[in-house]
Design a protein that fits this description.
This protein is about 65% helix and about 10% strand. It is mainly alpha-helical. It folds into two domains: about 1-45; about 50-140, Arc Repressor Mutant, subunit A (Orthogonal Bundle). It has a three-stranded antiparallel beta sheet with strand order 1-3-2. The longest helix is centred in the first third of the chain and has 25 residues, at about 25-45.
Length: about 160
Amino acid sequence: MNADPVDQILGQWQRERPDLDASPMGVMGRIARLAKHLDHSIQETVSEFGLNPGEFDVLATLRRSGQPYQLSPTDLFNALMVSSGTMTHRVDRLEQAGLVKRIPDPNDRRGMLIQLTDQGFKVIEKAVEAHVANGHRLLIVLEEAERKLLAQLLHKLLISFEE
């Protein structure tokens, strides 16, 4: 297997501090570097649809919520783990682009819902297909069993943080 940049870092620590088990740096360093590569690839993919990753997340969250493809702003920012200010900015941009609209909440006179427009639905359908295809392309280097194992291990690690 070819060496990666993290191997060099680990080798330097092994040389300088042989008493220190720096193996967690290998896992964390690779995850951090992969996150940068993945973020870049996602940005490239969704930009083909005039979106940034945050806007894609809003549209995808609305789409996967099922018909009538609408959520309250609170449900949106809870699902996406962003601040209300960030969510407002994203929704404003998407509304200006005609991809979502604000509608009155029939269950709360003071509330509103964010809903996909027909145009927004069409855009997210194409964007999510491209996003999934990009994910398959990025993971092609792994065998199916390796992908499943990696998914299980990442799930286990994430649960340990989110509990």
